[in-house]
């Protein structure tokens, strides 16, 4: 029986990914910070008789990762697939966000992936087989205010995943990066519409998210892509997911850096109009207001 370990499975993409693998007959180790809050997940596991074990693991803490990984390896012997999904989002302007928030995002989204990867990689390398799937984001290529901290962590994850792929290919370990666009998760829905910042970007970008989520893309779509990658023989590194992912990436690639900065620094009226022209999204209406600067 194939085995998979997935981080951040309490909700959203992680939860759907665990269920997708479990329903396909995998032995799934689903990790999360607070298993006591996973009552709905536990009910699904029981009702569908899935071979899913929920384990407590905080990817932010070395000792927690080591304890959980050592226990799973001791009981199971090896893990065929690692899905590094755990992630958090903090948003705000560079000036106004606290250093604690910057550090928290990087600790979970980047260092958390490294902790888990380093714990399992020696076993995969020794066995000369394995797959590591890292859930990044379109934000790993496109940096928008007020998602500077989140984008930085995903850019870092993209870079280290690319380096890792080079190192482990001779050992028959495959690395893949999944790059979702705007997915209907709690994280996406929590993008603030607070207008209290001295910078307009937070409110404007919140409107873009709200407009996109009016036709939501479910996290199960990302889970399906992760499962597809795991089942395939592909060595393809990057996998954009969602109807807006590839268009966003292509649009950004069509602009010079200076044009992109100017686009984000435009007046409210010009910015809202350009969003509607480029993406067909009425970000202003999604905010519930028709006022302008």
Question: How is this structure best described in words?
Answer:
The chain is an alpha/beta fold. It has two domains: 3-183 and 218-252, NAD(P)-binding Rossmann-like Domain (Rossmann fold); 191-217 and 255-293, no CATH class. The chain is built from twelve helices and seven strands. The chain has helices at 12-23, 39-48, 62-76, 99-127, 148-168, 186-189, 201-212, 219-231, 245-253, 257-264, 268-279, 283-286, and strands at residues 3-6, 27-32, 52-56, 81-84, 130-135, 173-180, 238-241. Strands 3-2-1-4-5-6-7 form a seven-stranded parallel beta sheet, with helices on both faces. Strand 1 (3-6), helix 1 and strand 2 (27-32) form a beta-alpha-beta unit. The longest helix has 29 residues, at 99-127. It is globular. 42% of the residues are buried. Mean pLDDT is 94; it is low at 289-293.
């Amino acid at each position: 029986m194939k085995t998979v370990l997935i981080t951040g499975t309490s909700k959203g993409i992680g939860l759907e990914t665990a269920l997708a693998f479990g329903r396909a007959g995998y032995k799934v180790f689903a990790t999360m910070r607070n298993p006591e809050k996973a009552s709905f997940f536990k009910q699904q596991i029981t009702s569908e008789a899935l071979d899913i074990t929920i384990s407590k693991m905080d990817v932010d803490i070395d000792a927690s990762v080591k304890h959980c990984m050592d226990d799973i390896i001791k009981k199971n012997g090896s893990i065929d697939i690692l899905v590094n999904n755990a992630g958090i989002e903090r948003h705000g302007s560079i000036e106004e966000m606290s250093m604690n928030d910057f550090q928290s995002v990087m600790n979970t989204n980047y260092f958390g992936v490294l902790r888990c990867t380093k714990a399992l990689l020696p076993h995969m390398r020794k066995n000369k087989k394995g797959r590591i799937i890292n859930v990044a984001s379109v934000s790993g290529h496109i940096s928008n205010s007020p998602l500077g901290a989140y984008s930085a962590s995903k850019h870092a994850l993209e870079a280290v995943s690319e380096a890792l792929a080079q190192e482990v290919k001779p050992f028959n370990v495959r690395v893949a990066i999944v790059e979702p666009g705007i997915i209907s998760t709690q994280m996406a829905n929590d993008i603030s519409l607070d207008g209290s910042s001295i910078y307009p970007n937070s409110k404007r970008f919140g409107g873009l998210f709200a407009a996109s989520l009016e036709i939501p893309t479910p996290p199960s779509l990302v889970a399906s892509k992760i499962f597809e990658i795991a089942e395939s023989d592909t060595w393809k590194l990057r996998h954009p997911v969602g109807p807006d992912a590839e268009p966003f990436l292509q649009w950004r690639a069509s602009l010079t850096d200076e044009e992109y900065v100017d686009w984000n620094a435009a007046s409210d009226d010009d910015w809202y109009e350009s969003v509607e022209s480029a993406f067909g999204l009425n970000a202003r209406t999604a905010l519930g207001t028709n006022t302008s600067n």
